[in-house]
Design goal:
homodimer, about 200 residues, Arc Repressor Mutant, subunit A, globular, 2 domains, DNA-binding
DNA sequence: GGCGTTTTGGCCACGGGTGCCATTAGCGTC
DNA sequence: GACGCTAATGGCACCCGTGGCCAAAACGCC
């Protein structure tokens, strides 16, 4: 229901046609967020801007908080493939790290931009809060990967720890990146990992 | 205002006396949460149970989500002291880790119990979401400590990374602990750190 | 043109959260 | 013992996000 709406419009055959798209809603919403801030933008305002009933917004996004995330389900599927592509003979941590790095290479020509999205998400309290739910799904993808490769269960300490720490490194990288978007995000992900390995270096 | 209410009642001199306490509210709230779940418990119900107006609840807790966290401001102050106590000649990571470990030694005789609190917080979606805001404050304490000890700014990559990773380890430990509260939480924090160091061991 | 299908969007109810303000109940003073 | 000061209380109105319900709309197909 929620997903079928716009995954592939051309596949639809009959029934009343859709009036809008996820992309159109996101663009309208980000226009308003830029003007009035996230909290200052009501769903009524977004609905008006899109030219659609407020009720309809909920058929495209589960909640107001989900709008900035866009089609995160698709993004997660991409991440799952990146992890699956890790060579079996590579150390586990390295494969995970390279997938996380690659995951954060976003096409620069998106609208809304990846910077705009993430700045909004990471700098707005209400969205910071909501983001955990998305992070949990993201970590779960890692935990399942690690579990599969080590024979553990996803809930065990190693898969959980790797998931949590991978997220931690990514978030540390984002934090620096948002302050200075000119830097390369994937490089910052690398730098965070190096920083951690250095910090924990047993020889010190 | 928000804090002054109950930090030290004996310090109050004049004005209408308070009708309740943070502890009383938390105990009443947890009773209801246990019966009807967090989402199923309305603020009206909590107010009734405490015997207080709904409006008054907001003078003790900023939001419904804050009730399970209790007096987190006090908890943070304790954490700050633990970090400050780390010897200067000890490796930075070790001092941070020991503080995190010590921070998670909670008195077993609390009401509500630390397990009840954390189970509610970590297993209720709405609270999982809200918890990031608390985590951010907790990480900031670490980031400031690391910044002070290394001469960096709290926003730099090392302080942020250490903060994020410390949180990651703690959360991984909690996740296992909640499934099996008989295990020692501080020991699990140690185990998570060992797991990470092993995972990243350069010799593998 | 009628029918089935699918989306739309209006209406209503609920609950959390906030500003406003009159009320309440101790304290210190006279 | 009354009076005023002060600070906490709690009722009221209101905004906003969210979800259930359902009739109306607009297409393809026959």
């Amino acid at each position: 229901m929620y997903l079928a709406a716009v995954v592939d419009d051309s596949a639809r055959r009959q029934g009343r046609p859709v009036v809008t798209t996820h992309a159109a809603i996101e663009q309208a919403a980000f226009r308003l967020f830029a003007e009035r801030g996230f909290e200052g933008t009501t769903l009524d305002a977004i609905a008006d801007e899109v030219g659609v009933g407020r009720r309809t917004l909920f058929r495209y996004y589960r909640s107001k908080n989900d709008i900035p995330w866009g089609r995160f389900d698709l993004t997660l599927a991409r991440f799952r493939h990146l992890l699956a592509d890790a060579p079996a003979d590579e150390p586990l941590w390295r494969g995970v790290h390279r997938a996380v790095r690659a995951f954060n290479e976003f096409p620069p020509a998106a609208d809304p931009t990846h910077v705009d999205r993430m700045r909004l998400i990471l700098r707005t309290p209400a969205l910071q809060a909501h983001s955990v739910l998305r992070y949990a799904e993201w970590r779960q993808v890692i935990a399942e990967h690690v579990a599969a490769r080590t024979g553990a269960r996803p809930g065990d300490l190693l898969p959980q720890t790797v998931g949590q720490v991978s997220l931690a490194l990514a978030l540390a990288a984002y934090d620096v990146w948002l302050d200075d978007p000119a830097r390369s995000l994937p490089d910052l992900v690398d730098a965070a990992m190096l920083t951690l390995r250095d910090h924990l270096d047993p020889t010190t």
